[in-house]
Write a structure and sequence with these properties.
By secondary structure, the chain is an all-alpha fold. The protein has one domain. Helices cover about 70% and strands about 0% of the residues. It contains four helices and no strands. The protein starts with a helix and ends in a 5-residue tail after the last helix.
């Protein structure tokens, strides 16, 4: 289970960091074929979301991977934080971006799996 947890965290970390960097480099979202932010009054382009994606989702995920590899006592707490931040990010993304993409389901499922595995490895269940 530990290897699966690290693998899932790696997927989230790599994709969020790469996507965030692309959004920082090209804040219009044309490279990723993203629509204009019609529903969002907070942002004119994808620059701030790209920075937040790299720092929050990517940064916490990379930190979680490193801490899980070093067998730190807080390793599952970091994985839970990473899964929670990823879930929140996807939900906000679904409500902010006017189009709905199939990748939202995949990354939400990966985030939930991270949460469930981390809780199971920690020895606590939600129920």
């Amino acid at each position: 289970m530990r290897i699966l947890l690290i693998l899932l965290l790696s997927i989230i970390a790599c994709v969020s960091t790469l996507t965030g960097v692309i959004l920082i480099v090209e804040p219009t979202g044309e490279i990723l074929q993203l629509p204009q932010l019609i529903h969002s009054k907070q942002f004119n382009n994808y620059l701030i979301p790209g920075i937040l994606l790299v720092v929050l989702v990517g940064g916490v995920s990379w930190t979680s991977i490193f801490i899980n590899l070093t067998n730190n006592n807080k390793r599952f707490n970091w994985a839970i934080a990473s899964g929670t931040i990823s879930c929140i990010w996807i939900v906000i993304q679904v409500f902010t971006i006017p189009n709905f993409y199939w990748t939202h389901f995949i990354f939400l499922a990966i985030s939930v799996m991270i949460l469930l595995i981390a809780y199971q490895q920690k020895g606590k269940w939600l129920l």
